Amino acid sequence: MSPTQGNEPGAPTYAAVLRVPRYLPIFLANALSMWGDFIARITIAAVVYQRTTSPLATATTLAVSMVPTFLGRSLLGPLVDRFPYKWVLIWSHLLRATCVLGLMLLVLNGSGYGLLFLVLFLLELIGGASTASFMVLLTDLVQNRHLYAKAVALGSMSEQVNQAIGLAVGGGLIALVGPETGLLLDLVTFVVTAVVIAFVVELKPITGERGRGLRGFARDLAGAAGDLAHHPVLARLMTLSAIACLGIVAPEALALPIAGPGGWGGVLMASPILGAIVGILLVGRRDVVAQNRSILPMALAMPIPLLLTVLHPPIWVVTALFFLSGVMQAFMVPLQATFALVTEPALRGRIFSLAGSVSVAAAGVTYVAAGWVGQYSSAHAGVAICAAVCLGLTALLAVSWPYRGVRAAVDRAYGAA
Question: Which class for 262: exposed (0-12), middle (13-18), buried (19 or more C-beta within 10 A)?
Fold first, then answer.
């Protein structure tokens, strides 16, 4: 039995993940797409901040990218259960490339915020389908479930690295050569990703029962929502993920106002991401059972460093606090892997989409809430208040956390003794 496709226990390496057939080109294409996407996000946010110097306007711009992602994952993500994910991935990336071209033209023409937000809305709306498709693709591609947990860690680390690169490069690009260059790079990444998927991803038929027409689609979606809400493990994992957004998103939402002029906004935004990379490396060294035991303790520790931002420390101290909080964000890796494996295969498209949309909605609310507090008090206070709420809600969830149910689900998902 192949070590990449069996189900034997062990501690697989990242190299073993990369040796899975067809994984490497898909991994690289997805990383390239993420890099360009984050460049586009900070580029548009920086354009708005330069024109308004308003923390609320800047955070609202980032929130605009969250709201359509919520709708896209909720309404378009279930397409993965109805159409082969290969075609969903290809068409979603090509349509997103078209939206980026529209953003380029609007920035060149100096168009108002209304049109910029509308095209950004469409860009992120379409992205909901590609996100769910890629998650289902990964569960099919890596059949060994211990290796799959490592693949989730590698994918999350890649996302953090490429987000850090995208944010730092995006901040520099707009200062050096203008926002059009960043958007052009984003367009190229979507096209390249679509081409790689067309040649590398295997076309697989869809499985499971599906309702017919729009009514059947709505029934399937409602049924999946009910299954998710009443599942004793999935519902708690989803709730924790949504609560954690308060501590994860607030630093990103207010990094530019905290940094002020000088071009350090991208670096400050990247600091919790770099911390998350370190955290993922540390968590990935443990077996899957130990990883899942660390979910709740790390979630409780994650917002604590951010509370100190209320003291308005120097920028290098804020950077260090963001980094420490980022290290604790690594609990999301075992959370996501276990969530995926506990979900029924035939329902993964719609369940992944619904759960992701809840987290995205929480992130969007956090962007606006943090921006509002930052506007009327200070950016530092906005981060600290969001962190305090995050800590309080996580502590309440910990009181009723289903420890035995999570352990049993982990044993079933990974074949642990």
Answer: exposed
